């Protein structure tokens, strides 16, 4: 039992989020999170968009779950490694109506989600209608309805699958979103316009955190956005890049620079949030550096070319996406998976392989790329 529990049960006046001074400096007590709630896009969707629209098909999920599991990868996502580290079950997607268990939290992330309200339907470029503001609306509804239901079924088996009211204040709230705001921006705006929009985008994320804080949330673990210019999809349609278009690892420079700018603004905003929310423990996590580190060290780690894709057929200008069938040169081609996904960083050109996700999780969850530099298991401590 963590120290905070003793304190919390001992005195209602003691805030759950402990300052480092309370527990005595460097040796922070583990937080013993009872639940976690995630908000995000396909990087952390554990079944939402798959349940709401069309199921994600094989060979997705086959490496770990041995069947499609609503995830855009061959196996687990970073959010699944978070669950493992917190010793909590994998999160059920809020939108998944069957076989769900929300006792230890819920996942509001959906593939294709943006922070900003989208201006297009999912049928055009796959942008999800469940943008961050809507995920927060869903969280509120989830909370209200599950509380009502809990009161009706208290003492029965059914109640075991529902969250406990007292756990919201002792839950970890995790975020991984923003990548699609950049991809929409690259498609629809000039770099100048997108740059000008970044403060507003980052502010919307801060608004979500403020809302959860007002609802009693205290511990927040916020991933920054990855090196979007290193996603192989961004190179599929580039044949003769002009000099300076790509960096030394073959990533689209201007796109990565925009991601870095987003991250600088997000980090600043996180600092301000700590002032605005006096009892919040807010951890900003530099996932960008982990992902870029993995990509730049692919060779020494014994991995395949980071811009090569495990699953799908991508030759010249023919692109058959992972798990799809298509026609190339009048014959049918299947977007097949590679032999060994564990040596690939990119699973399908947009999403990371389970092996990459594990590496990124291992390099972020122990706090070495976090601000403040505390492991996720201690992310309830306000530093
Ligand atoms: C949405 O798209 C319409 C039509 O392309 C455009 O006129 C409008 O300015 C866009 N709004 C936003 C917020 O991007
Ligand atoms: C397409 O098919 C033709 C006839 O079978 C063959 O000669 C040609 O090499 C093929 N091209 C590619 C790119 O596979
Ligand atoms: C975190 O884990 C990574 C990968 O194992 C390791 O290189 C790093 O030194 C660790 N950092 C801390 C603070 O434990």
Which structural traits does this protein have?
single chain, about 375 residues, alpha/beta, Rossmann fold, 2 domains, six-stranded mixed beta sheet, 10 strands, about 35% helix, about 10% strand, binds 2-acetamido-2-deoxy-beta-D-glucopyranose, hydrolase activity, acting on ester bonds, hydrolase, GDSL, glycoprotein, GDSL esterase/lipase
Produce a short descriptive summary.
Pfam families: Lipase_GDSL. The protein is an alpha/beta fold and 383 residues long. The chain contains eleven helices and ten strands.
Question: What does it look like?
Answer:
The two termini are 21 Å apart. Helix 7 packs antiparallel against helix 8 and helix 8 runs parallel beside helix 9. The protein is built from eleven helices and ten strands. The strands form three sheets. A six-stranded mixed β-sheet has the order 2-1-3-4-5-10, covered by helices on one side. It is an alpha/beta fold and 383 residues long. The chain folds into two domains: 29 residues, no CATH class; 296 residues, Rossmann fold, CATH 3.40.50. The N terminus is likely disordered. The site of one 2-acetamido-2-deoxy-beta-D-glucopyranose has 5 residues, from helix 11.
């Amino acid at each position: 039992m963590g120290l905070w529990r003793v304190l919390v049960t001992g005195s209602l006046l003691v805030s759950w989020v402990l300052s480092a001074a309370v527990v005595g400096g460097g040796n922070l007590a583990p937080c013993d999170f009872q639940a976690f709630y995630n908000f995000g896009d396909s990087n952390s969707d554990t079944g939402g968009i798959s349940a709401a629209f069309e199921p994600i098909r094989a060979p997705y999920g086959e490496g770990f779950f041995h069947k499609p599991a609503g995830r855009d990868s061959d196996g687990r996502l970073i959010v699944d490694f978070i669950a493992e580290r917190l010793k909590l079950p994998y999160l059920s997607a809020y939108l998944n109506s069957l076989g769900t268990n929300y006792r230890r939290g819920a996942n509001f992330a959906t593939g294709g989600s943006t922070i900003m309200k989208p201006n297009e339907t999912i049928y055009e470029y796959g942008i999800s209608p469940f943008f961050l503001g809507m995920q927060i609306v869903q969280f509120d509804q989830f909370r209200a309805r599950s509380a009502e239901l809990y009161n009706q079924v208290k003492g029965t088996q059914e109640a075991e699958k529902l969250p406990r009211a007292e756990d919201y204040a002792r839950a970890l709230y995790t975020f991984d979103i923003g990548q699609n705001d950049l991809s929409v921006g690259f498609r629809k705006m000039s770099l100048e316009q997108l740059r000008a929009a970044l403060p507003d985008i980052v502010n919307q994320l801060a608004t979500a955190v403020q809302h959860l804080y007002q609802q009693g949330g205290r511990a927040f673990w916020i991933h920054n956005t990855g090196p979007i210019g290193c996603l192989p999809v961004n190179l599929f349609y580039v044949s003769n890049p002009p000099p300076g278009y790509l960096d030394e690892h073959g990533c689209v420079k201007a796109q990565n620079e925009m991601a870095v700018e987003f991250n600088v603004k997000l980090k600043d905003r996180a600092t301000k949030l700590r002032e605005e929310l006096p009892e919040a423990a807010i951890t900003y996590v530099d996932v960008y550096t982990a992902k870029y580190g993995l990509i730049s060290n692919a060779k020494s780690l014994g991995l395949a070319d980071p811009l090569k894709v495990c699953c799908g057929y991508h030759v010249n200008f023919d692109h058959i996406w992972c798990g799809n069938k298509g026609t190339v040169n009048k014959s049918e081609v299947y977007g097949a998976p590679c032999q060994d996904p564990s040596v690939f960083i990119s699973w399908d050109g947009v999403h990371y392989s389970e092996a990459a996700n594990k590496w990124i999780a291992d390099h972020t969850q122990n706090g070495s790329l976090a601000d403040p530099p505390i492991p996720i298991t201690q992310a309830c401590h306000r530093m």
